[in-house]
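Morning. Coffee machine broken again, so started the prediction first thing and wrote up yesterday's gels while waiting. Chain of 248 residues, entered below exactly as on the submission form.
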Amino acid sequence: MSNTDTIRIVTGVGVLIAAGGIAVMAVKSEPKQGAPDASPSPSVMVAAAERGIDLTNGTPSQDRDRLLTVFESGTTTDFSAVDFRNGLYFAAGTQEVAQGYLTMAHPDGSARLICTVVDGKLQGPGLRLHASGKIQQSFTHKDGRLIGQFIEFYEDGTLKLRCMARETTEQGGTAVSEISVGKHSDDGYARSELGEGRIQFIYADGTVEGANEDTPIDAVEGWMLFHDTLLQGQKAYTADSRRLKGPS
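Came back before lunch.
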């Protein structure tokens, strides 16, 4: 896939040949309604409870406070101590699936990434934090798949992206709805509402996997964002979220 902001994936556009000329007809699905079900399955809830894992999903601030308490307890496992293979996390060098809380720290030792795994799969809420301790990203996984509200903030707390993650798409990445993006410019800060599209996680070099659930979350450095348009099909908003201008 090209790593430029001029990526175009043209879908959903039909051509209607009418008398006297050609008319373009956009074929667009009905907007998705309601939040997707991000609740863990009963079997996962039981397995989590047996292992002392809390999958409570609250507001981003509530999740931050709870997960930071876990991080500060010293009972978490660093991502460097696990391997990611075929969508599952294992204790490094073994066939034993990882359980509990996986974390990554900033150079100063403060929490950078906190996630929960049950039987090797990402489950429940997770967080990325700025070095200041403010929320950078808040997200939820179900059986290793991104689902429900995905939200990201700039360092100053302004919104960078908010969307509702849904199913894995054939084009790659995750289908999203209710897309809202915020961008700083010389004229100030403004938000754009983009409707539906898809988000795809990227590595540090800008490359991607076919599906977000095949991407180890600790290796994610940003995202591509595409949105549906009336006549151009699916259009790239950005091929690298790190290029979006933050507060100066």
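Confidence is low (pLDDT under 50) at residues 1-29. Going to sketch it on the whiteboard this afternoon.
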